[in-house]
Amino acid sequence: KQFFLSFTMQVWINKYSPKKLSDVRGQNTALERLKNYVLSYKKGTKPLLIYGPQGVGKTSSIHALANEMNYELIEVNASDVRNAEGINSILGAAINQRSLFADKKLILVDEVDGLAGREDRGGVAAICALLSKSIFPIVLTANDPYKKNLASLRKKCELQEYGGLIYTSILSNLKKICEIENIKVEDETLTSLARSVGGDMRAAINDLQSLSYDGTLTKKDLDLAYSRDRSEKIITALVRVFKSLNADIAIDAFDDVEEDLDKIFLWIEENIPKEYTKTKDLAEAFSNLALADVFKGRIRRWQYYRFYVYCYNLLSVGIALSKDEKYPGFTSYKQSTRILKIWMSNQKNAKKKDISHKIAVKTHSSTRTVMLTTLVYIREIFKKNKQEADKMAEFLDLSPEEIAWLRG
Predict the structure, then answer these.
(1) How far apart are CA 77 and CA 113, in angstroms?
(2) Distance between CA atoms of 195 and 323, rounded to whole angstroms?
(3) pLDDT digits (tens, 9 = 90+) for 11-54
(4) What is the residue range of 198's domain?
(5) Which of 109, 175, 191, 336 gets the most CB atoms within 10 Å of its CB?
(6) Nearest to residue 38, comparing CAs of 395, 30, 91?
(7) CATH number at residue 194
(8) Nearest to 318, CA basis, from 326, 310, 306, 329
(9) What DSSP designation does 122 have?
């Protein structure tokens, strides 16, 4: 079975998208609230804003609910339609006009946090004005609903979080797909893939399809993926530290992180002020960070590696218990500025962005996600399999220069 034939016929994230709510994994509480909101909706009810990391089932659960309950789904991606005119033209009529194709109607405003950038021209205000007028249930989605520009929208909505998926939920889905697609893979390799995606089901399925283009998935294939997944693992670790008051949860947060201790220091130093805002919490957190740095210095001077235990305990439990209570809401953790500058310079490659955008359109992903997760595998195919590369180039409508870049 050839990857590209499968790729061109149907992208797996679409092929295996949930068709009913029971197909959505790992979000039972959120799904129950979503279902109750839609079924009990009355005009004037606050819309439901569901939020969480990418790939955890936000959009797919709404599609599944609409499909299962015979709702006509009216969908608008706020990242694509940012201005007031665009919002009003699509949603204005939809919120009051009865469906011609189904018994009921459900309105989805996807990626609403995409309205909070410079290109927003009244989109947030337009949505706020329409929300209370709808005779149909409206569900909005966001990765980060706590952006400053979304404050007015947030007040008009009920919020429901979708948490990151545990790896076993992802693993069971990957096993099902491998059976259907006849993919040869060892359980250990598939488990490693499920663990590596940081709770992102969409990334796991995309990786599985990309890596198994020849009908097999090996540990060697995953070794390349691990280098890409380092930043995802460190962010998962930071969530366990910053969002917990339980020492047992925080203590092993960095066990699966492959970054060296110096880089972990930089990540924590950069993000303490993003998470903690109280003076006392900041002082306690930076005090623990400083003490960990003292032990790190002693390791280098004295070669006494037992001090690594103290370092990691201070960076995990020490930072986690620096606060008296958990801070609510979503925090977007960032790399240290020094590392970020290197990363930003790499994004200046225009061809890389153009190619990623073409792939993103075909795979219903964001350009950034493709650049960070998929493009490296596409390049491997172009370098090693000319026949499949030619088919892919035609499918993606790549220019000769873009093909040359992928093969370079």
Answers:
(1) 10
(2) 29
(3) 888 899 999 999 999 899 999 999 999 999 988 889 999 998 88
(4) 166-228
(5) 109
(6) 30
(7) 1.10.8.60
(8) 310
(9) B
Residues 143, 58 share a domain: yes
pLDDT given at position 33: 94
Say if residues 144 and 79 touch (Cβ distance below 8 Å): no
Looking at the structure, tell me whether residues 298 and 210 fall in a common domain: no
Most confident of 59-73, 138-152, 186-200, 299-313: 59-73
Name the residue among 242, 315, 312 with its Cα closest to residue 277.
242
The per-residue pLDDT for 118 is: 44
pTM here? 0.55
Q: Would you say residue 20 lies in a domain?
A: no
Q: How many residues does the chain have?
A: 408
Per-residue pLDDT of 295-315, as tens digits, reads: 988 888 887 878 888 999 999
Asked if 247 and 310 count as a contact pair (C-beta separation under 8 A), the reply is no
pLDDT of residue 250: 85
What is the rounded CA–CA span in Å between residue 241 and residue 238?
A: 5
Three-state DSSP state, 329 = coil
> Same structural domain for residues 75 and 111?
yes
Residue 11 lies in a domain: no
Q: Are strands 138-142 and 158-161 parallel, antiparallel or unpaired?
A: unpaired
245 occurs within a structural domain: yes
In a domain, 150, yes or no: yes
